[in-house]
Amino acid sequence: MTASVTMDESAALKAKLLDAFLDLVPEKGWSQNTLTHAAQHLELEEGLVWALFPEGEKNALTTWSRLLDQQMEDKLSALDLASMKIRERIFWGVRTRLTLLTPRKQAASLAFRFLLDPRHTFMATPLIYDTVHVMWTLAGDTSTDYNFYTKRLLLSGVYISTFIYWLRDTSPEHHNTWKFLENRIDNVLSLHKIKSFAKEGLPFSKIVKSLWPFP
């Protein structure tokens, strides 16, 4: 009983610290110092902070991404996905994930910059994989052969490029982003381009530069 309560309290504190951290990120950046400031604001002891986030701001990013994936799964599960075509299910998967990020768009932008740092790019692949895996699973994908990985690789390209577009989109309710997303899903040439990245073994930062939709 005590262990269960302790775990619940730990989860609640972790969520509270993450929220406080995300509140400060737009002003102070995605860093360990920002996490420290958030903890001080909540009057949390330093030892407790390290227990909650052993790797500091890296853990904060991983925790946030997994939380968003869970929220995305909850929202998509409430939709009538079975009545949709596959491309529509994927569209709503990407749109839902980005919509969840919208209230903290500036923090998302700074988190993205954090991942582009060569010291942190190793974190990007598993985080993006987890996100697109949830999308494909909810879309009804049951493949077990090479298509399993190909689909996730291709969707990663669609998600990354749409995310980048979304960051700079100022249209009402991100209308232009959703149009861009529709085009990306239909853009077979771009999907083949992503496929070639896998064969070349390009790192995440170079994939992003190749996908950048602006001059």
Word description of this protein:
The chain has 215 residues and is mainly α. The protein has two domains: 1-54; 56-211, Orthogonal Bundle (Tetracycline Repressor, domain 2). Helices cover 76% and strands 0% of the residues. It has eleven helices and no strands. The chain starts with a helix and ends with a helix. Mean pLDDT is 88; it is low at 1-5.
**What global shape is seen?**
globular
Stated plainly, the CATH topology of the largest domain is called Tetracycline Repressor, domain 2
Separation, N- and C-terminal Cα atoms: 58 Å
The portion of residues forming beta strands comes to under 5%
Number of helices: 11
Rounded mean pLDDT is 88
- The helix-and-strand class reads mainly alpha
What is the level-2 CATH architecture name of the largest domain? Orthogonal Bundle
Helical proportion, percent range: over 70%
Tally of structural domains: 2
By DSSP, the count of extended strands is 0
Low-pLDDT residue intervals, each spanning 5 or more residues: 1-5
What pattern of helices and strands is seen along the backbone? HHHHHHHHHHH
**Gyration radius, rounded:** 18 Å
User: Major beta sheet, specifics?
Assistant: none
- Level-1 CATH class name of the largest domain: Mainly Alpha
